[in-house]
């Protein structure tokens, strides 16, 4: 699949409502906009999209890790926006375990299921990419999103494939639950 463009977004939050709790929260989103070979037609077998997602995943996951700079990665998520000549299922095919395992490897491992979302859209579509702690899904402090808008993508025959990572949980998180220090990291949940 041909990549038309790659965009990297970096967001760093230093405080929330005037209060800092230490290390800034850095979120990075990387988007690859690719052609959709199944635009305008039904295709029963989506194996091509699943297989092609491996190379795309390697490329954008590497860029996301690099854009984190000095920070380690604690959270991750993935998403896709499919142009209007495609199906939502095309985006889902791009985000399967093939893609997910590459993201896990790039961030240094991860036991937890990777939160994801897909939708159909036009250029300018807003998507909230869900984030969760990479080793245990039940760590509430890391439930978050990164909101992205692509001003010129996806075109009707394209798919925007997205990875997002963060170096920590929300600033001033205080709703209880499992903490990072309590994570067993065995089953991806706790």
How many domains make up the 3D coordinates? Answer: 1
Backbone CA Rg: 17 Å
Structural class: alpha+beta
Tell me the total number of β-strands. Answer: 7
User: What's the CATH superfamily, by name?
Assistant: BB2672
Chain-averaged pLDDT: 95
How would you spell out the order of helices and strands? EEHEHHEEEE
CATH topology: 60s Ribosomal Protein L30, Chain: A
State the major sheet. 7 strands, mixed
Task: Report, as a whole number of angstroms, the end-to-end distance.
Answer: 37 Å
User: What global shape is seen?
Assistant: globular
- Give the count of helical stretches: 3
Helix content: 10-25%
Label the CATH architecture.
Answer: 2-Layer Sandwich
Spans of at least 5 consecutive residues with low confidence: none
Descriptors:
globular; 20% helix; alpha+beta; 7 strands; 60s Ribosomal Protein L30, Chain: A; 190 residues
Description:
Strands 1, 2, 3, 4, 5, 6 and 7 form a seven-stranded mixed sheet that branches. The model has no long low-confidence stretch (mean pLDDT 95). This protein has helices spanning 47-67, 88-94, 97-106, and strands spanning 3-13, 25-35, 75-82, 115-120, 126-133, 144-149, 158-166. With 190 residues, it is of the alpha+beta class. The protein has a single domain (3-182), classed as 60s Ribosomal Protein L30, Chain: A (2-Layer Sandwich). 20% of the residues lie in helices and 31% in strands. The longest helix is centred in the N-terminal third of the chain and has 21 residues, at 47-67. The chain is built from three helices and seven strands; from the N terminus they run E-E-H-E-H-H-E-E-E-E.
């Amino acid at each position: 699949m041909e990549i038309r463009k790659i965009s990297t977004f970096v967001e760093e939050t230093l405080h929330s409502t005037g209060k800092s709790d230490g290390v800034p929260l850095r979120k990075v989103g990387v988007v690859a906009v690719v052609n959709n070979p199944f635009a305008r037609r039904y295709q029963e077998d989506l194996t091509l999209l699943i297989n092609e997602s491996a190379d795309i995943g390697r490329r954008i996951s590497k860029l996301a890790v690099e854009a984190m700079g000095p920070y380690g990665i604690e959270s991750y998520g993935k998403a896709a926006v499919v142009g209007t000549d495609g199906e939502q299922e095309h985006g889902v095919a791009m985000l399967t375990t093939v893609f997910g395992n590459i993201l896990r490897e790039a961030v240094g491992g991860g036991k937890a299921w990777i939160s994801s979302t897909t939708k159909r859209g036009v250029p300018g579509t807003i998507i909230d990419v869900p984030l969760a702690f990479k080793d245990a899904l039940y760590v509430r402090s890391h439930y978050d999103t990164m909101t992205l808008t692509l001003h010129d993508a996806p075109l009707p025959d394209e798919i925007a494939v997205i990875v997002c990572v963060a170096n920590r949980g929300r600033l001033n998180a205080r709703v209880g639950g499992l903490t990072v220090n309590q994570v067993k990291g065995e089953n991806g949940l706790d």
